[in-house]
Amino acid sequence: xxxxxxxxxxxxxxxxxxxxxxxxxxxxxxxxxxxxxxxxxxxxxxxxxxxxxxxxxxxxxxxxxxxxxxxxxxxxxxxxxxxxxxxxxxxxxxxxxxxxxxxxxxxxxxxxxxxxxxxxxxxxxxxxxxxxxxxxxxxxxxxxxxxxxxxxxxxxxxxxxxxxxxxxxxxxxxxxxxxxxxxxxxxxxxxxxxxxxxxxxxxxxxxxxxxxxxxxxxxxxxxxxxxxxxxxxxxxxxxxxxxxxxxxxxxxxxxxxxxxxxxxxxxxxxxxxxxxxxxxxxxxxxxxxxxxxxxxxxxxxxxxxxxxxxxxxxxxxxxxxxxxxxxxxxxxxxxxxxxxxxxxxxxxxxxxxxxxxxxxxxxxxxxxxxxxxxxxxxxxxxxxxxxxxxxxxxxxxxxxxxxxxxxxxxxxxxxxxxxxxxxxxxxxxxxxxxxxxxxxxxxxxxxxxxxxxxxxxxxxxxxxxxxxxxxxxxxxxxxxxxxxxxxxxxxxxxxxxxxxxxxxxxxxxxxxxxxxxxxxxxxxxxxxxxxxxxxxxxxxxxxxxxxxxxxxxxxxxxxxxxxxxxxxxxxxxxxxxxxxxxxxxxxxxxxxxxxxxxxxxxxxxxxxxxxxxxxxxxxxxxxxxxxxxxxxx
Length: 633
What we know:
This protein is mainly beta. Helix content is 7%, strand content 44%. The protein contains 5 helices and 45 strands. Helix 2 crosses helix 4 (385-396).
């Protein structure tokens, strides 16, 4: 049974000897491992926000001092500026220079002039800013207490709400003189990124933290799912100031697919209304996929014929998949990341982008191009069990968002191949940009392999992208509407490994024939996937769903819905044809615009005589584009 966690949070509190009460949004934990920067600017800072409702609890009281934790004391002159402001965009109403004496310690700073809370303030921000070099992490948080519109950090784009970043509660606390006794619990929005299906049973757990000054013994919680409400009382909690407990709410059985609204509300604390009810409600929307929803994981391996450790890496990967993957797997081998070989395609080396640096290696693995933050900082991981197993588990918990229908045909006489890929989003895709790609692989090629012999069987070798470039085609996707793409091409008797330009062949002492590999029709596969796309962040290119068919076969994933609404992407045939004639690019037919790029992404004159190599031609018709890869020999 899967579990979702709905969390109610508070700040840790403690009465100081001066009878001042301490308030904030942190659970009080801090360490050298819970430090971070926001963006790349030398100016850094943190702030917490008190809402108008919170300020009513402190009306007529004064902020006498502030507790803060700094990740480093290596700011300019070991100084920071404390501020109190009614808006993060305007001028502060109070500032004070601070001297940072220690790092990763809870430091208390007495205000030169205590700030009197009138209660008329719409909101109040308390925080600090400092200048610090980019080699230090200044910001400190508990990495646990996730509250929306409560904690902020200064970065490249100014002040940013840190909710959803994983940082949790900023390590800033206010000491308020003679605070009155009150009850207050706060609720966060639930993390709803899990993969849910109709027909499943889901348990709701609530973790409760006491923000108020009174001990909480009883809580009344109303749970409303899809319009049906039930209220539950939890007694004998003995939830002391700053304490927490976990509440188990009743099981929910999803009977239909689609969006379901979930509302969790604390209706009473100790039998009475909470003193601040403004943050007692968490409203979320769950999406339940069809019960028969089919999905697969795209598993990409980086390898090379000259890599002596790659055979053992492949064995480790296959063993991990066999033992741990509960979902079907679509495998693609990229002969890059190490020394290029006779399989290497030009596109293969573009995928080394996912290493996140110029340092590449093999054997290496990617699973749905996801980064499991507990394993690695980039999608490419070592081909070892301790990396593969948790990343598989992490990938299986992610939503697939869309289903795929992939059709292909092959004419043995003409060797004409037709491919049509259709994509059906069930719900809104999360990426700012999203794309589809259709690629071709060839399985079971017998060839030399270091530490594998002359008759080593190379599996799932990448043989090129059918959409014209390594990344595929950007498109706008609407839930409930199909998006389709199709192409027709002639499959030759061999596939030339187009990474190898004439210059590279000459320098390596190879011939074109040595990298022109025979095609085995029975071992050719078409792979289609839908993914997010961001050229500036290796961790924002996750694959949502994928599927695979043998050449000449078709497959529709279970859960694919034929809506009757078809949003076709422009097929190759709708554009002008691109040919190479005498080392020049020739466009036959109509295109509004033609742009030519080399494999580094540099635009070049499309009319000039070209050197041997691989180029990308981008054609435009109206507001649509398609890219075609051409080889000049």
